[in-house]
Amino acid sequence: MPPAHNPQTALAQGWCVLSVLHERIQAHIERALVEKHGLTVREYSLLNVLSRQNSGPGGHLQMKQVADAVVLSQSATTRLVTRLEERGLLARCFCPTDRRGIYTNVTPEGQALLKAARPTNHAALHEALAEASRDPQLKPLVKALEALGAAS
């Protein structure tokens, strides 16, 4: 007799499968970005998020917003910003309307590196998804991601 269906166990197993897919994708992208551009996935994500802000009213992100966007604590985000600033990829500036506010902008060097790294990120993502789709457990999640991408 098969074991009774337990929704809690099924949910936990689903989370494990999703976690495996995420880790595989992230590791594949990380290897490609580090090898070709000297960027980690977190560094790439931070540059990408900051490159989309603008200098108009309300266009700059506060550090908490940046931390939420890259899924890090504020202190870890600050350390990451400092590392990229030391590499000349980011620059901090004061908010023109509130001298207590500090913004972080992507420098021209950071923009150039991000532009060069985007195709690598996209290619590595597609490679990781193609590899994962060969795993019967991961294939439904890959299809769901592809459907999400097609719907946007």
Number of strands: 2
Structural class: mainly alpha
Distance linking N and C termini: 44 Å
Helix content bin: 55-70%
> What integer value in Å does the Rg equal?
19 Å
Topology:
Elements: H1 7-37, H2 41-51, H3 63-70, H4 74-86, E1 90-94, E2 102-106, H5 108-132, H6 139-151
Helix pairs in contact: 1-5, 2-5, 3-4
What does it look like?
The chain is mostly helical. It has 6 helices and 2 strands, in the order H-H-H-H-E-E-H-H. The protein has helices spanning 7-37, 41-51, 63-70, 74-86, 108-132, 139-151, and strands at 90-94, 102-106. Strands 1-2 form a two-stranded antiparallel sheet. Strand 1 (90-94) and strand 2 (102-106) form a beta hairpin. The chain is globular and about 60 Å long. The protein starts with 6 loop residues before the first helix and ends with a helix. The mean pLDDT is 90.
What is this entry, summarized?
The chain has 152 residues and is mostly helical. It has helices at residues 7-37, 41-51, 63-70, 74-86, 108-132, 139-151; strands spanning 90-94, 102-106.
Overview features:
152 residues, mainly alpha, two-stranded antiparallel sheet, 6 helices, 7% strand, globular
